[in-house]
Each structure stands twice: as structure tokens, then as C-alpha cells.
Amino acid sequence: MKKSNSTSLKSFSKFCLILSLLVFIPISSCTEKDSTNIETEVPLTEIDTNTVFVADIDTLIEEVIVENNISKANKIIAQLDSTTSLGKKIIEIQKEIYPDPAKYDHIFKGSQIEINIGMEQKYIDRKILLAKVIETIKEDNKTNDSYRESRGKSFISNLDKSQDLWYKYMRSQILVKYPEDSYSRDVSAFNLCYFEYLIELTDQRIVMLNNWLIGEVSGKMCSGTIENKR
């Protein structure tokens, strides 16, 4: 009985030795290879972030934004009907929805007060565009009998209710990010931040409602009241 136990103990010891060799040999090999053959990565803190580098990145990002905006607008415009006055109006709206960012470059070239005022004006421009999008949706619905019939009589009233609710959402969302008792309202750049966020929320609404102007691709299911125009 004792001999059997001794044999079992020896077998277990051999198993442990083999297992340890299997585990530690690759690890030691990798460690040695790392120390001799693999170059150590430069820590992020040692990367040179001079103003020229930052300016190059900013320029690259701006170029991508411009290219994307122009590409989006052109892609949509190419699929729209430009033979009617309403179609031409919708096309012009697409150019306003996806503008050249250079249009507002002047905003950041003045004092903080001038920047704040410039950002407020940009918000006013987007707010006017949102109203134009809604007005054009209603005009499109009014002038096209097939749209009006398929959408139903309640479409316009539902659109108005939706816009009222969205406006309440926007005001509430502003207070979530910038509460009335927040210290962030006391800084000189607050108006810049405030109107920048209003622009972001307004642009989201514009892009959403624009679907009813440009329509869906022909044959797409589940489009609801968004007509298949493209």
C-alpha cells in the first residue's frame, strides 16, 4: 500500500516537472527575444507634439470634413429631380445642410466676445434652415397628391407635434449638459459652448427630417411616410 502511494507521488512529481517546463520554456524564450530583437515602443509622453504637427493634423481633419460634406451633398443631389422648382429648392437645401466648413472660419479669428457672437449667428442660420426644411416638407406634401394620400391626413399635424416635442427635448438636453446652477455658465467661453451644442442638436434634427425631402431609394421597405424618390 505504501509502495503504491510512493509510486503515485513520484508520477505526480514528474507530471508537475513536465508541466513547469512546458509553461516556462516559451515564456523565457519570449523574454529573451524581447530583450534582444524587439524594439521598445516610444512612450506617448516622449512623442513630439509641436505646433506644426498639431496644425498638420487640424488641416488634415478639416480637409476630410470638407471632402465628406461635398461628397454627401453631391451624392444626394445626383439622385434628386432638378426639373421642378420644388426639386431645385430641395437641392439648394442639401448644399446648406452640408456646407463648406470654411464658411464659418471667420468665427474663430476674433476676440472671445466676437467668437461668442459668431457662434450665436451660426446657430441662428441652422435654426432658419431647420424651419426651411419643415416648410419644404409641408410644401412637398401639399403639391403631391400621391404623397398626401399615402401619408394620410394626420401627417402634417403629427409633424408639428413631433417638432414641438423635439423643441422641448432640446431645451431639456441643454439643461442636462449646462444646468442653470452650473459653474460652467460663468466662464467667458460659455456662449461659445452653449450655441455649439444647440447647433449639434439642431443639425441632428435637420438630418433626420431631411429624409422626408430626399426620400428613400426606390423599392426600400419599411419607409413609412418617407417616399421612394431615388
Automatic annotation (TrEMBL):
Protein origin, superkingdom: Bacteria
UniProt keywords, alphabetically: Signal
Key word Calcium present: no
Record-linked Gene3D superfamilies: 1.20.1270.180
Domain Lysozyme inhibitor LprI-like N-terminal residue range list: 111-207
Signal sequence, renumbered to the chain: 1-31
Keyword Signal (UniProt): yes
InterPro entries, per the entry: LprI-like_N (IPR009739)
Protein name: Lysozyme inhibitor LprI-like N-terminal domain-containing protein
Species per Swiss-Prot/TrEMBL record: Brumimicrobium glaciale
